[in-house]
């Protein structure tokens, strides 16, 4: 019997976990299965996100003496880029296997990789980071969890700090019930919803996906007053 297609296994793992009403359990199952070659991690690009790279080239942030938090860091490519800017970088993921994979992929990393849950983050992170980077994590959670996840992302930004969010854009006119996640891409309103309390949206770009131009991605930058 030939082994099952890893892409099919990945989808099955997600579907079964969501059916059991365990919306985050499948990430660990997926990373663990990928470790022994039985599944693929579909979002693992082996490189930093191009919209993050572009933001860094344009904004030129200097992380010297500053702190950064990378949300849902997966195998760590974005965290490595941020840490190389000089930020004391904490990169977290709910999946212990993802954290181990990140450490293995970047043995000389300057970033600290830790297991943590965005929906219940460590209290000491509250408003503690000069830069928070969130890429594709909130959209990986069912819509019913996204408001809390969105709030928690913003709550880790310190006064004067920056939040950068990169997410897939939900096609116009698609209702919540019609989105067959994962992922559950974000509406413009969902992106604007990161601007809670004194976190202000200062830049919002919508760019076509490089290989699928009918799909769009948000890149949003916020500043906490
Ligand atoms: C779609 S992947 C994106 C990974 C990475 N940010 C990227 O862009 O390649 C979502 C990541 O968030 C992690 N994740 C999901 N729910 C989480 C939670 N509640 N807390 C922390 N990490 C979470 C998953 O394990 C996964 O690595």
UniProtKB/TrEMBL annotation:
InterPro entries: Methyltransf_25, SAM-dependent_MTases_sf. One of its GO terms (biological process) is methylation. Signal peptide: none annotated. The keyword Nucleus does not apply. Residues 69-161 form the Methyltransferase domain. Pfam families: Methyltransf_25. Keywords: Methyltransferase, S-adenosyl-L-methionine, Transferase. GO terms for molecular function: methyltransferase activity. This is Methyltransferase family protein.
């Amino acid at each position: 019997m030939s082994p099952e297609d890893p892409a099919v296994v990945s989808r099955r793992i997600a579907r079964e976990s969501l059916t059991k009403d365990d919306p985050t359990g499948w990430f660990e199952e997926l990373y663990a299965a990928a470790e022994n070659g039985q599944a693929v991690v579909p979002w693992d690009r082996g490189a930093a996100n191009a919209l993050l790279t572009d933001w860094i080239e344009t904004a030129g942030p200097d992380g010297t003496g500053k702190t950064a938090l990378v949300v849902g860091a997966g195998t760590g490519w974005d965290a490595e880029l941020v840490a190389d800017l000089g930020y004391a970088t904490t990169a977290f993921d709910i999946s212990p296997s993802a954290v181990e994979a990140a450490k293995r992929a970047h043995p000389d990393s300057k970033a600290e990789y830790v297991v943590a849950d965005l929906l219940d983050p460590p209290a000491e992170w509250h408003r503690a980071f000069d830069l928070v980077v969130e890429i594709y994590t909130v959209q990986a959670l069912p819509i019913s969890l996204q408001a809390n996840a969105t709030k928690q992302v913003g709550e880790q930004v310190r006064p004067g700090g920056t939040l950068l969010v990169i997410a897939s854009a939900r096609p116009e006119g698609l209702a919540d019930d019609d989105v067959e996640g994962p992922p559950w891409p974000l509406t413009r309103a969902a992106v604007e919803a990161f601007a809670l309390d004194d976190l202000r949206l200062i830049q919002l770009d919508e760019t076509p996906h490089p290989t699928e131009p009918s799909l769009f991605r948000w890149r949003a930058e916020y500043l906490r007053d």
